[in-house]
Design a protein that fits this description.
Layout lengths: L2 E6 L5 H10 L7 E7 L5 E7 L2 H11 L5 E7 L14 E3 L2 E7 L4 H10 L9 H16 L3 H9 L6 E7 L5 E7 L4 E4 L4 E4 L11 E4 L5 E5 L3 E4 L5 E2 L4 E2 L15 H7 L1 H9 L16 H9 L2 E6 L1 H17 L4 E5 H4 L10 E7 L5 H10 L7 E5 L5 H5 L2 E4 L12 H20 L4 H22 L2 H11 L4 E6 L4 H15 L2 E6 L16 E5 L6 H13 L3 E6 L9 E5 L8 H20 L17
Parallel strand pairs: 16-17, 16-18, 18-19, 19-20, 21-22, 21-23, 23-24, 24-25
Antiparallel strand pairs: 1-4, 1-10, 2-3, 2-4, 5-6, 6-7, 7-8, 8-12, 9-10, 9-11, 11-15, 12-13, 13-14
Helix pairs in contact: 1-2, 3-4, 4-5, 7-13, 7-14, 9-13, 9-16, 13-14, 14-18, 15-18, 16-18
Bound molecules: fructose -6-phosphate.
């Protein structure tokens, strides 16, 4: 979603702004802009539809100078993708960039129009700019007071940065539902939606809390909490390496992140498996662990890829820990009247920890009487982590590719460890628990073996990249893996891909099968293989093009293409089988020449509902 970087310094900030906003491209956007206040106190603004490279070219031609300003990448919500709607937005001396949605902007717009303001865009951001100007001109308020007064009139989840050409020594940053971080430099300070944007300039950060307003000057930062009281927020030293946010030897972040999985799973396991092969989460207190003993039901809520990880864990919770588990897409959970189960425990899953739908579901759950809540999250300082009772971190490291890969396998690893922990707490299936720990230990090396198949997987992708449709089938805990495989293909290749439970084929989708329909079947040689074979035969009889992923060749018909996957215990197999599908989707998009890391219309962190 929208990205913000801002700086107040003594040097010319143009290059800094362009380089830093480029680091936020991964969030997804469709237009970009920049504004600085120059030596004559003029606002200089440049905007364009399209990529930051286009903006850079435009800016460089103008030879701009400014030591206070900001840049923005816009992911359209209010109003079409156009230069007029691109940020920053201006109202006389006031300049604004913002992320999120102002829900009552239409009403405010009418009010402001009546006061004589003319709008040049369809955005809610221009509403903010005019509102700030109106408040400031009414009583000649300071910029801080103007912002404090104006935001009382705004509904919605957002963050914003404001500057004033009449007082170009400070920026005002507001966090109200959408994250902002302040980067502390030497005689210069910065603001961004994400620390990644600032890592080349500083490692020292202050994360704003909900409702905080910060005055950011070159030599000083003052923060006021939601009650307007000046407050100290902790400064953290980031351990994220600037190098870790580069592509290194890989063509794309997605490719790099797929190949990082053995390491990210290892990091997720590290220090959590004790010598006696039991699981220990330092993040959970004994009291929190006991809640899992008390829990008679688990409710998990998530979106997209995280939702698919949750779906896999339903099979695990029920078959291993004997706890009924329901999984729901966050936006659906928040859209209906809920009847909650007795002694139910609430879990959210998220890579970013900022997904608005998941946050909303968590907030709703708190009013419903769950035993407690937990988030499994990849971003430690995120809103979801802050608002949850407790958190288990996935140690996938920063994920830049819009299509989630390594965070998915890390989520599955944490979920399986959590369930194994519960098995130990309940003294249930102890032998199986030991086996799981052993298989988790071997998982990274099994994934590395899949990487050796990349030429074969690329060949399959090259055969299928022109197809208009692809069907994915899986059974049991491999069904969510089929869903995830289809999602990966859809989002980066724009090919229509659908997933079905293998057994459901004969209830409708079989009608789609003919010699042009490729069907990818996840078919490990496990307790379900005989049933899966029936589905393979049904497709084969109708001349569907079959691609089987299995640890054992299925010699049924000769129109079957086989991709051999290393053997792994049935329980843990979903974590392994997604890897060839991630590679497959990557190679299809590569062959099609798509923008793999920034697919059209998508954002990495979906901060609007
Ligand atoms: C798919 C993808 C999205 C996210 C979804 C939830 O590759 O990345 O479907 O999984 O937007 O995001 P998080 O996990 O950050 O809550």
């Amino acid at each position: 979603m929208c990205g913000i970087v801002a700086a107040v310094t003594k040097r010319n900030i143009i290059n800094f702004l362009l380089q830093s906003i480029k680091k936020l491209e991964y969030r997804g956007y469709d237009s970009s802009g920049l504004a600085v206040i120059n030596k004559n106190s003029d606002i200089v603004r440049i905007r364009c539809v399209g990529k930051v490279n286009v903006l850079s070219k435009k800016v460089k031609k103008k030879k701009l100078f400014g030591n206070i300003g900001f840049a923005h990448t816009r992911w359209a919500t209010h109003g079409k993708i156009s230069k007029e709607n691109t940020h920053p937005h201006i109202s006389s001396n006031i300049v604004v960039v913002h992320n999120g949605i102002i829900e009552n902007s239409s009403k405010l717009r009418i009010l402001l129009e009546k006061k004589g303001y003319t709008f040049n865009s369809d955005t809610d951001t221009e509403v903010i700019a005019h509102l700030l100007h109106l408040e400031q001109s009414k009583k000649g308020l300071s910029l801080l007071k103007t912002v404090q007064k104006s935001i009382l009139q705004l509904n919605g989840n957002y963050s914003m940065v404001v500057m004033d050409a009449k007082n170009a020594s400070k920026l005002i940053a507001v966090r109200s539902g959408s994250p902002l971080v302040i980067g502390l430099g030497i005689k210069e300070n910065f603001i961004a939606s994400d620390q990644i944007a600032l890592l080349s300039s500083t490692k020292r950060f202050i994360y704003l809390e909900e409702g905080d307003i910060a005055i950011v000057k070159a030599k000083k930062v003052n923060i006021f909490n939601k009650d307007g009281v000046i407050i100290e927020r902790d400064e953290i030293k980031s351990n994220v390496k600037y190098k870790s946010v580069s592509k290194g030897k890989y063509k794309h972040y997605m490719e790099k992140e797929i190949y990082e999985q053995p390491l990210s799973i290892q990091k997720t396991l590290n220090n959590r498996i004790k010598e006696d092969k039991t699981i220990h989460f330092s993040e959970l207190s004994p009291k929190e662990e006991n809640l899992f003993l008390k829990a008679e039901h688990i409710q998990i809520v998530a979106c997209g890829t995280s939702y698919h990880a949750a779906l896999v864990s339903k099979y695990w919770f029920e078959s291993l820990a004997d706890i009924p588990c329901d999984v729901e897409i966050a936006s659906e959970f928040s859209s209906r009247k809920l009847a909650i189960r007795k002694n139910s425990f609430f879990i959210t899953l998220s890579q970013s920890g900022e997904t608005a739908d998941t946050l909303e579901a968590l907030r709703i759950s708190k009013k419903l009487g769950y035993l407690g809540n937990l988030t499994i999250c990849n971003m430690k300082g995120s809103s979801l982590v802050k608002e949850s009772d407790c958190c288990l971190s996935t140690e996938a490291g920063i994920e830049i590719g819009v299509a989630s890969t390594k965070s998915f396998t890390a989520q599955l690893t944490v979920l399986l460890m959590l369930i194994t922990k519960i098995m130990h707490l309940k003294r249930k299936n102890i032998m199986i628990a030991k086996k799981i720990v052993k298989s988790l230990h071997y998982l990274p090396s099994k994934i590395k073996k899949i990487f050796k198949k990349n030429t074969l997987i690329e060949k399959v992708a090259n055969n299928l990249y022109r197809k208009k449709n692809i069907l994915f089938l899986g059974r049991g805990s491999q069904y969510p893996i089929a869903l995830e495989g289809a999602l990966k293909v859809k989002e980066i290749s724009y090919i229509h891909a659908e997933a079905y439970p293998s057994g459901e084929l004969k209830h409708g989708p079989l009608a789609l099968i003919d010699k042009n329909m490729p069907v990818i079947i996840i078919a490990p040689n496990d307790s379900l293989i005989e049933k899966t074979k029936k589905s393979i035969q049904e497709i084969s009889a109708r001349e569907g093009k079959i691609y089987v992923l299995s640890d054992k060749e299925v010699n049924l018909e000769n129109n079957i293409n086989f991709i051999k996957i290393p053997y792994i215990e049935e329980i843990i197999a979903p974590i392994l089988y997604i890897v060839p599908l991630q590679l497959f989707s990557y190679y299809i998009a590569l062959k099609k020449g798509k923008n793999i890391d920034q697919p059209r219309n998508l954002a990495k962190s979906v901060t609007v509902e």
